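Sequence design from tokenized structure. All designs in this work follow the same two-part layout: the structure record, then the generated sequence. An example of the structure record is given first.
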């Protein structure tokens, strides 16, 4: 993920490019709408890239969380058989009895 200074530099470059495009379309081409449409495209691309990076960070965090929970739920191989807690007990949930009714 880009650092904050890189992100600010990229936003500055995009802002400058957008201003140049709008000024060019207003003075040279004399069609402001065309310039606005063209100036919006780099911003949309920037937002799509940021969205993809954000989704990648979320997926990585979820993978780490799933790995940690998997390791937590595995029994301790070196210790006695009854030492590890079941995941439902570690989060404070009550367990079900044979009849399907929860203990309160």
């Amino acid at each position: 993920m880009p650092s904050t200074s890189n992100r600010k530099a990229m936003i500055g470059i995009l802002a400058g490019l957008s201003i140049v495009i709008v000024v060019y379309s207003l003075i040279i081409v004399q069609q402001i709408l065309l310039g606005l449409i063209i100036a919006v495209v780099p911003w949309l691309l920037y937002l799509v890239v940021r969205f993809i990076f954000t989704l990648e960070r979320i997926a990585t965090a979820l993978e780490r969380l799933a790995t940690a929970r998997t390791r937590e739920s595995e029994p301790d191989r070196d210790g006695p058989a009854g030492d590890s807690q079941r995941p439902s007990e570690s989060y404070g949930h009550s367990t079900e009895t044979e009849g399907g009714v929860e203990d309160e």
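The two ends are 47 Å apart (CA to CA). We note this feature because it recurs in several other targets discussed in the main text.
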